[in-house]
């Protein structure tokens, strides 16, 4: 029996047909997700952030500040003052209405995707976060 077929009871099943159908269902699921209010709100909020030059400038400045802090931390030169400066810049950026809307839309989409993932995973009875049969235990 070739690897392409699997015996289920007395019936041979063409695995490529099953795989094709699963991929088709995955594609359909992606299309349906793209039609949800959460996804549409996220895309709209993302576009608003991307098209706001002031916010883009603040994002670049924040990223530069964070990168400088991370480099200082790696070399042991990070200070509490520098950390507070990064945190303050992040709070300020996140307080901007366009960023706050984006972050809220992102969180709502993430919650929806987690619920969908749970709905898919529950029937499988597979815990992907658990240990793998003792092979990785210390």
TrEMBL record:
Transmembrane segments: none annotated. Gene3D superfamilies: YheA/YmcA-like (1.20.1500.10). InterPro entries: Bact_com_dev_regulator, Com_YlbF, YheA/YmcA-like_dom_sf. Coiled coil: none annotated. PANTHER family: REGULATORY PROTEIN YLBF-RELATED, YLBF FAMILY REGULATOR. This is Uncharacterized conserved protein.
């Amino acid at each position: 029996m070739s690897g392409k077929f699997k015996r289920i009871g007395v019936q041979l099943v063409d695995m490529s047909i099953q795989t094709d159908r699963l991929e088709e269902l995955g594609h359909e699921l992606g299309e349906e997700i793209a039609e949800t209010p959460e996804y549409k709100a996220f895309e709209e909020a993302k576009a608003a952030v991307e098209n706001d030059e002031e916010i883009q400038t603040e994002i670049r400045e924040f990223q530069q500040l964070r990168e400088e802090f991370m480099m200082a931390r790696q070399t042991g030169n990070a200070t509490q003052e520098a950390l507070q400066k990064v945190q303050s810049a992040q709070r300020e950026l996140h307080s901007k209405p366009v960023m706050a809307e984006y972050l809220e839309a992102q969180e709502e989409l993430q919650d929806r995707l987690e619920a969908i993932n749970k709905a898919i995973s529950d029937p499988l009875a597979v815990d992907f976060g658990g240990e793998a049969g003792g092979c990785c235990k210390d």
